[in-house]
Amino acid sequence: MSEYRLAEKPALDVLEGLGYEPLHPDTALAMRIEENRAILKPVLIEAVRAINGIGEADAEAVYNDLATLAENEDWQRKLRGGYSRRLQGENRDRPVALIDFKHPANNRFHVVRQFRVAAQRSRIPDIVLFVNGIPLVVIEAKSPLKATAKAEEAFEQIKQYERDVPRLFASNAFNIVTDGIATLYGATGAPSQFYAPWPDAWPRRRADFADDLAKDLWCLCEPVRLLDLLAHFIVFETDPETGRKIKKVCRYQQFRAVNKAVQRVAEGVHRKGLIWHTQGSGKSLTMVFLALKLKTHLTLDAATLANPNILVLTDRIDLDNQISTTFVACGLPNPKQAASVGELRDAVARGGNGQILLSTIFKFAGSKDPIPNSANWIVLVDEAHRTQEKDLGAYLQATLPDAFFFGFTGTPIKSIDKDTYARFSIEGEGYLDKYGIDDAVRDGATVPILYEGRKTDWAINEAEIDILFDRWFVDLPDDKRDALKRKGLTVATIAKHPERIRLIARDIWEHFKAVCQPDGFKAQIVVVDREAVILYRAALAPVIAADLERGGLDADTARADADAMIACVYSKSQEDNKPSEDPDVAALRAELEKHYLDAEAEKKSKAAFKLFGHQPSFLIVCDKLLTGFDAPIEHVMYLDKPLKEHGLLQAIARTNRTCSIKLPDGGEIAKPHGRIVDYIGVTSHLDEALQSYRSEDVENALRDIAILRNDLKEAHARYRVHKRAMGLEGLDEKAAAYALREIVGNGREDEWFDLQRLARIFIKVYGDLSPDPAILDFTGEAKWAAAFLRLATQVIAKDESLDHRSYSGKIRDMLEQHVHVTGLSTTIRLRSITDPEFADDFDTEEKSEPELQEAFVRKSAELRRVTRELVDRNPAQYGRFSERVLEIIRRFEAGQIAAAEGLREFEGLTGDIETEQGAHAELGMDENAFSILRIMEAIVPDTDHAVLQDAAIAIGAVYAQAKASQPAFPHMPEYLRSLRQQVRRVLAEHDIGETKAIRDAVEEFAVSAYGDGQ
């Protein structure tokens, strides 16, 4: 009842206050006709009739159309006005509105609690919100007392609902998880890491609301705002790496910025605005949402929005392609990339027909003739500050004198940059909307960037360049020293000294092994010029190869693996293939030719770099990939190139993208921060490097790694104080875990959750800082805390603690060694169902009650892990086993069965799982084909079993052939499309229906089962 009293009931009260009419579950069920349906039929029919002025029969036909609609994207399109049908007495289709966006009061808003949907595995979401009888939002409420421990459970339940009762989510806009205090929302199908808060109540203030729950639900669910979100702030973006559609809902800063800009256009008073959304926070999507709302403006009318033309400009071809790709991937109406100056001018001059053009600012160079109808153009300029260079901004203004101009930037505008402020800001405003570095880090939109300066004698101070030259080149023959000096001493001269590069390459590899490699993250090496790219590659590859040899590889394999780990990305020069009498120049040109990647090879290397478990692990660059290259897996930038101001901010932001890596054992590692390892000395003069910016805009652009050392001391102190207060000091991990069970049993559950939270923070900061020497004083306590958390979770929750599987590789390795050395492994180290010792716990004779209880705890955790992994692989095949495990644990905790009886039930369950895992052999099928059969049985249960079996074998053969010929097929969109076509043919040949649902479910399984595991 605590969940209802502390989370569900307060949410219902807020929603009722916002205008949602509560419906009793029984009343809602009567409206649904059948319990396996989700639409409130009479509400929909009444709303459709009222909004469109149509008759009962036509409204009934509309309901029948929608009742069978299964695609979320198709629903989204129809909800936004893309639905039409032929009505009685008419000879052509006409649009039928499902929602009146411009007049919210004409719609019906309902809320239903405990909304049961019948299915093979029926589910009961806590709260569902309806608009005109259509379910749009599912809310899962959890007790705040259990928020720390149960957050994953809430997301897991949402995931189960989406899997088991898909009809409820066909029309879903987004989902919400709340504990009555904290509230998170996420798009349909989104993993838990993409759920986010909505902290800013713009245009209202936090003080306007009674509490955070009231504020959060108003932000997300207030009827007018919900319709705005539905109409303009949801897109389906095609992932260019996999070809899969990803549903995305805006973040609060995107909603705020877009509405500020649209309001400015609607009012028509001020015709410009400047928007700074820091790099990595979704600036390109903000532009998509703005273009979408300007184009469709479903919720408002204004003369300036009647049929505007939108021009999106960048200052670089690669950014033009990136923006264009994003617009097209998000399905924005009719975006067109202007391929030439003439094409752009013709399109702009033509105007007046709702165009969306994408182009570069350079196409306006020299243009002075104004376009007559420029007032009907809205210009969105990416990286606005750079467009003011070389009079490009003036040419643009001359060509489109009456247009609206909105400038976007991913970095702050320099305080001295008066041109950009004048061009895009109204006087005294500065930014129309600002989402800065600290905002993004606070919200988890980006990770903080830490820097560490490596050995100071490697740094290069331009003021002391003569002294450094004499130091580094003291052994060089006089004639070569003089020749170098005659060329002019530069930073590059010192930076490319072979011995310096050799030392740094060795340092890079040792640092990479300790920081990146354990978790599969990757790195860029940024050097002064193309020659340095080649020198670094020549120094790094042998270091890696020698280390691999020491690890047991033969010399040839070690060299090949080392070479595969490194890719060099640089531009080609026409001098590269010319001969030279200078042997050093000739050798350099030969290497530049050898390691150069053409456009296609560069594209492949960049794509592979972004993938976990694929090579390369290093990209060595000098100018390319310092801007516009998004690779979330990049954790470290090794910086050996002097950068400052905008170039520095752009470059270091390559490491600020959030990233979660799924590990083979089912765990998930989140990138804690980006790291800049500075060899050139930029960070020792950071204020100077960023002096052109307002200090408040860049004060946390880079954070000294020393901050983490202080964080570790503070986290350790808070954790130890709480541990002592609970009386656990001085106990070993096992004794502390069982003592904790008594503490929790005496009603002190909150103290356990606080200890969990503090211990997790301590362990996380310890792992983030490793391998810094500062961790050594805390190693013993970190080992104890990690082992204790894992063991205590088994004892109390009868579950394997997922904590250790979200730790970094460094922490997991340390924990496994620790539990083995201390003898805790019999309790903590969980075994696979295939382990010969797995069945030992089922022998209950001659075991004391404490031993039986410990065996039950271990079996609970092992079987929860086993079934969770099996369900993730194929829910249709293994979902029932997971539910049986949870039911046995529930009965044990309720005192309905003793530990010995529970172990016997677990033994029977284990036998059933093993039987299911071996069932394919009895049918003469391989395991993957049998899993496909189970998927098909769940979707089309009435189809003849022999027919399904034949089809499953044929489909399995399709994917087995794909694995044999193209192991990386999950990352090849065109190839995946051809596989889907082959599967469709197999289903058609066997006369099996529901082909779309089967193809989607089978592909999701096949990507994991037959693919390369990524």
TrEMBL record:
Helicase ATP-binding domain ranges (all copies): 264-430
One annotated GO molecular function: type I site-specific deoxyribonuclease activity
Xref: CDD domains: DEXHc_RE_I_HsdR (cd18030), HsdR_N (cd22332), SF2_C_EcoR124I-like (cd18800)
Keywords: ATP-binding, DNA-binding, Endonuclease, Hydrolase, Nuclease, Nucleotide-binding, Restriction system
Known EC number: 3.1.21.3
Keyword Cell cycle: no
A UniProt-annotated Pfam family: SWI2_SNF2
Source organism, top-level taxon: Bacteria
InterPro entries registered for this protein in UniProt: Helicase_ATP-bd, HsdR_RecA-like_helicase_dom_2, P-loop_NTPase, Restrct_endonuc_type1_HsdR_N, Restrct_endonuc_typeI_HsdR, SWI2_SNF2, Type-I_R_enzyme_R_subunit
Catalysed reactions, semicolon-separated: Endonucleolytic cleavage of DNA to give random double-stranded fragments with terminal 5'-phosphates, ATP is simultaneously hydrolyzed
SMART domains reported in the protein's UniProt record: DEXDc
Gene3D superfamilies attached to this UniProt entry: 3.90.1570.50, P-loop containing nucleotide triphosphate hydrolases
Function recorded in the entry: Subunit R is required for both nuclease and ATPase activities, but not for modification.
SUBUNIT field: The type I restriction/modification system is composed of three polypeptides R, M and S.
Family label: Belongs to the HsdR family.
Name under which the protein is recorded: Type I restriction enzyme endonuclease subunit
